[in-house]
Amino acid sequence: MTNTELKREHPKFSHPQSIVPGVSAGNILESNEPHGVPMKDMWSHQKDHMQLVSPLNRRKFEVLVVGTGLSAGSAAAALGELGYKVKVFTYHDSPRRAHSIAAQGGVNASRAKKVDNDSAYRHTKDTVKGGDYRCRESDCWRLANESVRVIDHMNAIGAPFAREYGGTLATRSFGGVQVSRTYYTRGQTGQQLQLSTTSALYRQIGLGNVELFAHNDLQDIIVYNDNGKKRAGGIVTRNLITGELKAFTGHAVVLGTGGYGNVYHMSTLAKNSNASAMMRAYDSGAYLASPAFVQFHPTGLPVNSDWQSKTILMSESLRNDGRIWSPKKEGDDRDPNTIPEEERDYFLERRYPAFGNLVPRDVASRAISQQINAGLGVGPLHNSVYLDFRDAIERLGKDKIRERYSNLIEMYEEAIGESAYETPMRIAPTCHFTMGGLWTDFNEMTSIDGLFAAGECSWTYHGANRLGANSLLSASVDGWFTLPFTIPNYLADHLNEEKLAEDSPEAQATLAQSQERIDRLMGVRGENPHGPSYYHRQLGDILYHGCGVSRNVEDLKEAITKIRELREDFWANVRIPGEANDMNQVLEYGLRVADYLDLGELMCVDALDRDESCGAHFREDHLTEDGEAERDDENWCFVSAWEPGANKNEFIRHAEPLYFDSIPLMTRNYK
Amino acid sequence: MKLTLEIWRQAGPTQEGHFETVQVDDASEQMSILELLDHVNEGYIERGEEPFAFASDCREGICGTCGLTVNGRPHGPGQNTPACQQRLFNFTDGQTIKLEPFRSAAYPVIKDMIVDRAALDHVMEQGGYVSMDAGTAPDADTLHVNHETSEYSLDHAACIGCGACVAACPNGAAHLFTGAKLVHLSLMPLGKEERGRRARNMVDDLEANFGHCSLYGECADVCPAGVPLTAVSAVTRERARAAFRGKDD
Question: Is ipTM over 0.95?
Fold first, then answer.
């Protein structure tokens, strides 16, 4: 199928003008969805019309898969099962450790076994609406339709899902949804899906179909010109034990490298999760979609000290009995128990009298962060608000509160050293998930031929806000049930073509480029030397303030200026001890921070450029009369996909217009 | 709080290692062992010196990446707690804390406190899986699993693969790790078909690369996932079952 055959009509789409200096309008992107088919049938139609590779020819193709999490690990295992030659790369020591393992709540599937009237339509609708109409509807249909066999497959390969006493699968309800479609294994669903997928990968490794390269960190993507089109031919990795750089080539490259939340320095992500593979793809010409779409969780443990390594989630359930407040007076450092009632602002109850402390996640996060930004934050760093059980204890007794929340209150006490029975907890919104990522078409191929992206490092499904328990699902659907169809479809066109040679000029040039970046970083000798974390911390502060839970034009402009200054400081002064040709964790970190600085700038550009509020992208200058997010479907019902401009501080905004068939545009309203 | 740290330095697998003494005057009781190391390392990096290499990732106790020996005990003094969750209030002001890598013949040191645990992955590659390709699974609701069985299976599937069990064992056995997988999969509806083959292949690899189990029980004492000690008996039981039965299932 060629693009022209499938060309959709784009009635009167035109790029809105950008208010950001340096941003120019690019192309209108083709999604490669089939033409003339209802959205809900597009995926099955697409599959029916794909090209196949016969079993005997599959060994002729080599596919490089970067990452071993739920999306990449499953893609590698499934392609191995089909008979392709697969090489899989991870910076971890073992494929099992990828960050999918830390997901807790569950995995959605609209299997609709019960009589609560769930269906693929409702699942699609919840996903599209939850994402505030900034995703592709056809993708969401695929997500819902394939969700059924994700559960069957995960169960078959070893995930011990919670079971009812009758022996059938148990489900639970999740936020923002009126049916029960979340499958789970206690509070460790991510662990069990990740380990089941890893075991499938182990099987393929044992059978010799997949070759594993642990301790190997992606440095660059080898992209070459193939008759005027950019095409991915391999990757360059750094062996983290020896420091050796090496080029690997193949017929296709898959990135399943996770989200970029660690750009904020403090997030719930694992310490090693990073944006580098995604940023290398972006630098090589793969468009980066909606980088400003970031989900913040309202009840994170706040940052209390400069040594704290990350933020940790506290369950939302605490908001059932805890009352959220901040002092009315700026800089009120008194013991909270001595602050009289009339000097407390129960701001959620004040602003949202109907829902009070139980407003949805994004609304709570916004309100909390507005208090903090107004100087009303509490705690040693004035960066949190109180979550107070005093009234609940008075009403229900301490025993009842202990019974409901003891594990959380203990966790809090261990981390903070205070008893929530005596002193109000302190909580703060914290970066949790990134909806933005590499732009991909309906086949999950990026704007570089042969470069595919899956899971959180790509932009699909979640629009401007992700629905709970949809992230494990999306990674599983991508890796197990999308790429095993679309990659062969791509490869079929390249039968009997030799892969790029590892000693080809293209591969060697990319290898040299990776070496140069490392040499440049190691070679910085400034007057005012600091390690990478000095810069990362500052970047995090800039982003939380300027491009955090709520955004405004002035702060975003200031953030862009500050990030550019910080980047200059970094490249003039950062100091990396040790050697490049040895295990060097500071060098690894330095390379991450260099990428975060570029990404942070782009996120602010995207947030400033997108002149509307939608989902988690909350612009204070685009509010409805009652202070809620106001979308501008007239001008901004499209996905922004970014490409670096020709010069410094220049960016090209490509656009994929979004159309909605069966889920018509409407205002998100949870009141 | 003030602490004296003795931290292991080792440039590579074949080099001699030694303890380096570091004084910390401003540690906080709420710091984890790993945050204490971050703090020490930050000082080294700001002075332009090479910090101590150690492994960690999620810092929530689920990924199994971290692992060091704290005062002679894998992960540290707290029972069934990974290093990332071991906080300093378990120690007293002025105490000396010795930090070194997991110690086991099966885990060569890569650098400082980082060890190579690939031998554990190798055991898994021999059979720690269900041989079922994507898309071929039957409806999960038609394969009934008793509620209790599923929960019991999960108790074993919960292993985080940190490898502390091996480091804690005087014999360097990986029976808790391997047994946990054998129990987990033997209880799953589709894991039963290759139960015998799995036990044969995994246990043979286990015996080639790790020590023997003589039921000390140290493994279950340090296991951050709380895998029950009974899992070790599954290794012998499942292997013997496979031998007598002589079949794949």
Answer: yes
